[in-house]
């Protein structure tokens, strides 16, 4: 029996008898990230980074000089997972600041979720120079879209492999771990309590997205369905949808077509500024 099969069996049985207990254990697992070490291909970029600590303790890595682009990784992610994109942006004359989200890397905290990530983006933006663009991957992409609703100021935004709404993520997690109906409902209630917002509000279809944007997703993403990108695109009027056949959930970050599309977006928003100068 695999570990996952054992967890599903325990959750299936105990979840009927003590749904709140099972929900609590799964909620803690859902919100408590592991700090995973960087891959070997991330190390050269990591060695060249300038580490900075923001006012409220958030840690970040910085490269380059020029207009600032802010990056936010996903769940259990790292700043240097954007290595290919960071290299491209720095070569094109940008400063890149890549955050370590709450409870990730050297940033403080014990738990992480999309609301905490969105607040971290707002804290970072308040200390950094005006942002040319904000880019997020997976949960980081969802947090960028949420932070925009709360006043994050930037000229453009990019969402990569992001979910369109949190409720679907929670339901998928609960089903994957074999929680029966009562435990699933308790799990969602407990997450909602910790997040501090009704889960239904964390849905991009109700957002106001009025800035230029890019949405990237791979068709073979095994963690977040590519259909989520279609939902985001429908809600985001001034956005380009880039669907790739391959790239999975992580490898898409290294696709040169993604870096090229980001540069195209930046060139698009820079052109009016040059004309008016």
Automatic annotation (TrEMBL):
What InterPro entries does this protein's entry cite?
A: AB_hydrolase_fold (IPR029058), Carboxylesterase_BioH (IPR050228), Hydrolase_4 (IPR022742)
Q: Which UniProt keywords apply?
A: Hydrolase
GO molecular-function terms, A-Z? hydrolase activity
Specify the species. Answer: Pseudomonas reidholzensis
Which Pfam families does this chain map to? Hydrolase_4
Q: What is this protein called?
A: Hydrolase
Using the record's annotation, list all stretches that form the Serine aminopeptidase S33 domain: 68-162
């Amino acid at each position: 029996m695999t570990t996952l099969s054992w967890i599903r069996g325990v959750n299936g049985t105990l979840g009927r008898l003590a749904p709140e207990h099972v929900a609590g254990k799964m909620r803690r697992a859902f919100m408590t990230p592991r700090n995973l070490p960087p891959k070997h291909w991330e190390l050269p970029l990591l060695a060249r980074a300038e580490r900075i600590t923001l006012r409220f303790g958030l840690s970040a890595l910085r490269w380059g000089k020029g207009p600032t682009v802010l990056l936010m990784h996903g769940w259990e992610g790292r700043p240097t997972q954007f290595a290919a994109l960071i290299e491209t942006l720095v070569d094109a004359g940008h400063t890149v600041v890549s955050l370590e989200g709450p409870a990730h890397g050297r940033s403080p905290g014990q738990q992480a979720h999309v609301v905490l990530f969105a607040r971290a983006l707002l804290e970072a933006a308040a200390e950094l120079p005006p942002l040319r663009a904000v880019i997020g991957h997976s949960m980081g992409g969802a947090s960028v879209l949420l932070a925009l609703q709360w006043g994050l100021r930037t000229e453009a935004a990019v969402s990569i492999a992001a979910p369109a709404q949190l409720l679907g993520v929670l339901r998928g997690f609960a089903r994957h771990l074999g929680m029966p109906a009562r435990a699933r409902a308790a799990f969602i209630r407990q997450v909602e309590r910790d997040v501090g917002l009704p889960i239904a509000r964390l849905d991009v279809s109700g957002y106001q997205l009025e800035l230029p944007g890019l949405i990237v997703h791979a068709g073979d993403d095994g963690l977040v369905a590519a259909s989520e990108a279609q939902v985001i695109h429908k809600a985001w009027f001034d956005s380009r949808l880039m669907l790739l056949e391959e790239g999975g959930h992580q490898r898409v970050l290294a696709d040169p077509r993604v870096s090229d599309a980001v540069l195209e977006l930046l060139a698009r928003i820079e052109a009016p500024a040059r004309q008016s100068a």
